[in-house]
Protein backbone atom coordinates (compact mmCIF):
# COMPACT_ATOMS: atom_id res chain seq x y z
CA UNK A 1 0.00 0.00 0.00
CA UNK A 2 1.32 3.45 -0.88
CA UNK A 3 1.05 5.76 2.09
CA UNK A 4 -0.99 8.88 1.53
CA UNK A 5 1.46 11.73 1.18
CA UNK A 6 -0.81 14.62 1.91
CA UNK A 7 -2.86 15.01 5.01
CA UNK A 8 -5.65 17.52 4.86
CA UNK A 9 -5.66 19.44 8.08
CA UNK A 10 -9.23 20.44 8.68
CA UNK A 11 -8.76 23.92 10.11
CA UNK A 12 -12.48 24.62 10.22
CA UNK A 13 -13.16 21.49 12.20
CA UNK A 14 -10.49 22.25 14.81
CA UNK A 15 -11.59 25.88 14.99
CA UNK A 16 -15.21 24.85 15.60
CA UNK A 17 -14.23 22.15 18.11
CA UNK A 18 -12.70 24.97 20.20
CA UNK A 19 -15.70 27.25 19.65
CA UNK A 20 -13.43 29.63 17.76
CA UNK A 21 -11.06 30.22 20.68
CA UNK A 22 -7.33 29.74 21.13
CA UNK A 23 -6.72 26.43 22.91
CA UNK A 24 -4.08 27.92 25.19
CA UNK A 25 -5.30 31.41 26.16
CA UNK A 26 -8.98 31.24 25.17
CA UNK A 27 -8.83 34.40 23.06
CA UNK A 28 -11.20 34.47 20.07
CA UNK A 29 -9.41 33.44 16.86
CA UNK A 30 -9.90 34.60 13.32
CA UNK A 31 -10.04 31.73 10.83
CA UNK A 32 -7.59 33.56 8.59
CA UNK A 33 -4.84 34.03 11.17
CA UNK A 34 -4.95 30.97 13.41
CA UNK A 35 -2.04 28.57 13.82
CA UNK A 36 -2.52 24.84 13.91
CA UNK A 37 -0.31 23.21 16.53
CA UNK A 38 0.61 19.61 17.18
CA UNK A 39 -0.52 19.06 20.78
CA UNK A 40 2.02 16.26 21.19
CA UNK A 41 4.96 17.87 19.35
CA UNK A 42 6.15 16.20 16.16
CA UNK A 43 9.58 15.94 17.80
CA UNK A 44 7.98 13.71 20.46
CA UNK A 45 6.21 11.53 17.88
CA UNK A 46 3.07 13.64 17.48
CA UNK A 47 1.04 12.89 14.34
CA UNK A 48 -1.05 14.96 11.94
CA UNK A 49 -4.24 13.23 13.07
CA UNK A 50 -7.11 15.52 13.98
CA UNK A 51 -6.94 14.36 17.61
CA UNK A 52 -3.40 15.77 17.88
CA UNK A 53 -4.12 19.22 16.48
CA UNK A 54 -5.15 22.37 18.29
CA UNK A 55 -5.81 25.86 16.99
CA UNK A 56 -3.98 28.69 18.68
CA UNK A 57 -3.29 32.38 18.28
CA UNK A 58 0.05 33.54 16.89
CA UNK A 59 1.33 34.63 20.33
CA UNK A 60 0.61 31.26 21.98
CA UNK A 61 1.99 29.41 18.98
CA UNK A 62 5.23 31.37 19.30
CA UNK A 63 5.40 30.71 23.07
CA UNK A 64 4.66 27.01 22.88
CA UNK A 65 7.58 24.89 23.99
CA UNK A 66 8.40 21.55 22.46
CA UNK A 67 7.32 19.72 25.59
CA UNK A 68 4.87 16.89 26.09
CA UNK A 69 1.68 18.17 27.77
CA UNK A 70 0.72 16.27 30.92
CA UNK A 71 -2.81 15.56 29.73
CA UNK A 72 -1.87 14.44 26.22
CA UNK A 73 -3.35 10.93 26.58
CA UNK A 74 -6.69 12.09 27.94
CA UNK A 75 -6.90 14.82 25.28
CA UNK A 76 -6.12 12.36 22.49
CA UNK A 77 -8.84 10.04 23.73
CA UNK A 78 -11.35 12.87 24.14
CA UNK A 79 -10.62 14.37 20.69
CA UNK A 80 -10.54 10.97 18.98
CA UNK A 81 -13.99 10.04 20.34
CA UNK A 82 -15.34 13.47 19.44
CA UNK A 83 -13.85 13.33 15.92
CA UNK A 84 -15.34 9.86 15.45
CA UNK A 85 -18.78 11.14 16.46
CA UNK A 86 -18.31 14.16 14.19
CA UNK A 87 -17.44 11.91 11.21
CA UNK A 88 -13.86 13.15 11.01
CA UNK A 89 -12.43 9.67 11.53
CA UNK A 90 -12.85 7.26 8.65
CA UNK A 91 -13.18 3.51 9.03
CA UNK A 92 -11.36 1.35 6.48
CA UNK A 93 -13.96 -0.20 4.18
CA UNK A 94 -12.85 -3.75 5.04
CA UNK A 95 -13.97 -3.23 8.66
CA UNK A 96 -17.54 -4.47 8.72
CA UNK A 97 -18.38 -4.05 12.40
CA UNK A 98 -21.86 -2.51 12.72
CA UNK A 99 -21.64 1.25 13.27
CA UNK A 100 -23.49 1.26 16.59
CA UNK A 101 -21.29 -1.52 18.00
CA UNK A 102 -18.16 0.31 16.89
CA UNK A 103 -19.46 3.55 18.39
CA UNK A 104 -20.01 1.87 21.77
CA UNK A 105 -16.52 0.36 21.76
CA UNK A 106 -14.98 3.69 20.81
CA UNK A 107 -16.83 5.43 23.62
CA UNK A 108 -15.20 3.05 26.13
CA UNK A 109 -11.62 3.82 25.03
CA UNK A 110 -9.48 4.43 28.11
CA UNK A 111 -5.91 4.09 26.90
CA UNK A 112 -3.76 5.34 24.01
CA UNK A 113 -0.22 4.59 22.90
CA UNK A 114 1.91 4.72 19.75
CA UNK A 115 2.76 1.58 17.78
CA UNK A 116 4.93 2.08 14.71
CA UNK A 117 3.05 4.36 12.30
CA UNK A 118 -0.17 3.88 14.24
CA UNK A 119 -1.82 5.41 17.23
CA UNK A 120 -3.51 2.62 19.16
CA UNK A 121 -6.66 3.41 21.13
CA UNK A 122 -7.67 0.73 23.56
CA UNK A 123 -11.08 -0.11 24.95
CA UNK A 124 -11.84 -3.14 27.17
CA UNK A 125 -11.47 -6.05 24.73
CA UNK A 126 -10.63 -4.04 21.59
CA UNK A 127 -7.76 -2.10 20.12
CA UNK A 128 -8.15 0.42 17.30
CA UNK A 129 -5.16 1.08 15.05
CA UNK A 130 -5.46 4.60 13.68
CA UNK A 131 -3.36 6.36 11.05
CA UNK A 132 -4.06 9.52 9.08
CA UNK A 133 -7.52 9.96 10.61
CA UNK A 134 -8.57 6.46 9.66
CA UNK A 135 -9.24 3.32 11.70
CA UNK A 136 -7.18 0.77 9.78
CA UNK A 137 -7.50 -2.26 12.06
CA UNK A 138 -9.66 -3.40 14.93
CA UNK A 139 -8.18 -6.17 17.06
CA UNK A 140 -10.10 -8.07 19.72
CA UNK A 141 -8.10 -9.25 22.71
CA UNK A 142 -8.88 -11.35 25.72
CA UNK A 143 -10.12 -9.39 28.70
CA UNK A 144 -8.07 -11.59 30.99
CA UNK A 145 -4.96 -10.07 29.42
CA UNK A 146 -2.77 -9.55 32.53
CA UNK A 147 -1.48 -6.17 31.31
CA UNK A 148 -4.87 -4.71 32.17
CA UNK A 149 -4.50 -5.53 35.85
ZN1 LIG B 1 -3.57 32.15 22.54
Question: How does this structure look, described?
Answer:
Helix content is about 25%, strand content about 25%. It is α+β, with helices and mostly antiparallel strands and about 150 residues long. It folds into two domains: about 10-65, DNA Binding (I), subunit A, CATH 1.10.30.50; about 75-149. The strands form two sheets. It has a five-stranded mixed sheet, with helices on one face. Strands 1-2 form a two-stranded antiparallel sheet. Mean pLDDT is about 90; it is low at about 1-5. Bound molecules: zinc ion (ZN).
Biggest sheet layout:
5 strands, mixed
What pattern of helices and strands is seen along the backbone? HEEHHEHEEEE
Question: What is the radius of gyration?
Answer: 16 Å
Q: Helix amount, in percent?
A: 10-25%
Number of domains: 2
Termini Cα gap: 37 Å
Mean pLDDT: 89
Count the helices. How many?
A: 4
- Secondary structural class: alpha+beta
- What's the total count of β strands? 7
Beta-strand share of residues: 15-25%
Structure, briefly:
This protein is an alpha+beta fold and 149 residues long.
List keywords for this structure.
single chain; alpha+beta; DNA Binding (I), subunit A; 2 domains; five-stranded mixed β-sheet; two-stranded antiparallel sheet; globular; binds zinc ion
Amino acid sequence: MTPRKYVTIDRHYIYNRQHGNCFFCGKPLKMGSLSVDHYLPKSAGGTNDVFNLVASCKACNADKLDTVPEDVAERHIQWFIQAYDDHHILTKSSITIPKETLRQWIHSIHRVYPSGDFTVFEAPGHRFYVRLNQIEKVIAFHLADPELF
